[in-house]
Amino acid sequence: DGGITQSPKYLFRKEGQNVTLSCEQNLNHDAMYWYRQDPGQGLRLIYYSQIVNDFQKGDIAEGYSVSREKKESFPLTVTSAQKNPTAFYLCASRMDTDTEAFFGQGTRLTVV
Amino acid sequence: AQRVTQPEKLLSVFKGAPVELKCNYSYSGSPELFWYVQYSRQRLQLLLRHISRESIKGFTADLNKGETSFHLKKPFAQEEDSAMYYCALSGFNKFYFGSGTKLNVKP
Where are the alpha helices (DSSP H) in A6-112? Predict the structure, then answer.
């Protein structure tokens, strides 16, 4: 069954801790994206990657880091430097720049 | 700078009424525009894209380059259309999203 999978669905973190959100796709897509979704603010781009071993900062990259060691995986680390990490995080992928994006079901991160 | 603007946060209409969700964009090149929909407890999914010129679930959207708009329209709203709608623009290897419009169709 092809698709894009995010895990876990819910994640709790203590202040000062780093946490990594998983995003895996078996669609053979080259491009992958991480967005943050906050009420009333829509989707804001954190990081994106067009090919393996390459990634670019989006509009709100501060306090986040990513890696793209494999085509199918694009994990996002929320570091302790992120001042307001509680949010809903969405991962997406697409074949190339002219195609639609497919989204995961999201991870809701809560800092306690 | 690239930007997608959805001026309405919430749009409430009665079943059977026409609906129009507004989207304006700014982009220096030739944009690829999309509408995405997020139903309650479901993942974000593509509704339609301007290049395909399709009508999906009765929705249509026309790209107006002069007005830099890509409004989403449906002549007769249904209760199952209640959802969050996002306009998106693809350009320079990125996907830009608007802030979303919540459509509430009342019985």
Answer: none
Strand partners, A91: A34
Pairing outcome for strands B19-21 and B60-61: unpaired
| A2 touches A29 (CB < 8 A) | no
In this complex, do A42 and B6 lie within 8 Å of one another by their Cβ atoms? yes
Residue keyed to tokens 């991480």: A34
Residues 6+ apart with CB under 8 A from A35: A43, A44, A45, A46, A89, A90, A91, A92, B97
Amino acid at B47: L
- Chain A residue closest to B50 (CA)? A100
Q: How far apart are CA A1 and CA B73, in angstroms?
A: 33
**B96 at A interface, C-beta within 8 A:** yes
Query: Per-residue pLDDT tens for B45-103?
Result: 999 998 777 788 999 998 898 899 999 999 999 999 999 999 999 887 888 899 999 99
**Pick from B29, B41, B38: which is nearest to B87 by CA?**
B38
Percent of chain A with pLDDT over 90: 78
